[in-house]
From TrEMBL:
Positions of the catalytic residues: C86 (nucleophile), H194, E196
Classification via InterPro entries: Class_I_gatase-like (IPR029062), PRibForGlyAmidine_synth_PurQ (IPR010075)
Protein name: Phosphoribosylformylglycinamidine synthase subunit PurQ
Any one cellular-component term (Gene Ontology): cytoplasm
A Pfam cross-reference name: GATase_5
Subcellular location field: Cytoplasm
GO molecular function, one term: ATP binding
Reaction equation(s) it catalyzes: L-glutamine + H2O = L-glutamate + NH4(+); N(2)-formyl-N(1)-(5-phospho-beta-D-ribosyl)glycinamide + L-glutamine + ATP + H2O = 2-formamido-N(1)-(5-O-phospho-beta-D-ribosyl)acetamidine + L-glutamate + ADP + phosphate + H(+)
């Protein structure tokens, strides 16, 4: 299976995401945000964490207009697998590929710590290797991680099983404790915690590896 990570000016988890995928035995290219097309043989796109364009205006609001995003949106509309991690999640929301918005943490402080989460849905392309309701720990590192959805939008997310992860003890004020979601078709996901920073014991735990092995399992089931 072939992955690609998009590098924006200010991305800082691009190499971590590439390392995570490669260390699990898969091919992963880095693509520059100014490219206007994707290589034909890419199976999954990762939008990495970081501070694209210095988080100016709003996190992800400028990166959303990077030339490559048009190709990413088309890829997603054709059913291609896309996952946005932290700043990548912010970019997907700004692009309209996922519902809701990410606002400043309710403490107004940047939070960097290990965070307990619950796997709310383990039958998706991104979570199928986890157990249902499994409690996992992943690092979080964000200033704008306070996910907002309206009550009506939440009802839709719930009914369509689009909530992937929830926080055990909500660190940032996110609506309904939501830490990660997918779109209604199930091929685009976004999450604030960093699975790519938790793939080996030496990193403090490997609960994040299953996000990537889930993607591979789902892909192998499709081909
Ligand atoms: N780790 C990250 O991706 C940081 C995300 C984002 N720029 C924020 O601080 O909210």
């Amino acid at each position: 299976m072939k992955f690609a990570v998009i590098v924006f000016p200010g991305s800082n988890c691009d190499k971590d995401a590439q390392y995570a995928v490669e260390s699990l035995g898969h091919n992963c290219r880095l693509l520059w945000h100014k490219d206007t097309s994707l290589p034909k043989d890419v199976d999954c796109i990762i939008l990495p964490g970081g501070f694209s364009y210095g988080d100016y205006l709003r996190s992800g609001a400028i990166a959303r207009f990077s030339p490559i995003m048009e190709a990413v949106i088309k890829f997603a509309e054709r059913g291609g697998l896309v996952i946005g991690i932290c700043n990548g999640f912010q970019i997907l929301l700004e692009s309209g590929l996922l519902p809701g918005a990410l606002m400043k943490n309710n403490s107004t402080k940047f939070i960097c710590k290990r965070q307990k989460l619950n796997v709310a849905n383990n039958s998706t392309a991104f979570t199928n290797k986890y157990k249902r309701n499994e409690e996992i720990t992943l690092p979080i590192a964000h200033g704008d991680g306070n996910y907002y959805v309206s009550k009506d939008e939440y009802k839709k997310l719930k009914e369509n099983n689009q909530i992937l992860f929830t926080y055990s003890d909500n660190p940032n004020g996110s609506s309904f404790d939501i830490a990660g979601i997918c779109n209604d078709k199930g091929n685009v996901a976004g999450m604030m915690p960093h699975p790519e920073r938790a793939i080996e014991e030496i990193l403090g735990g490997k609960d994040g590896a299953k996000v990537f092995t889930s993607i591979v399992k789902n892909f192998q089931g499709r081909v």
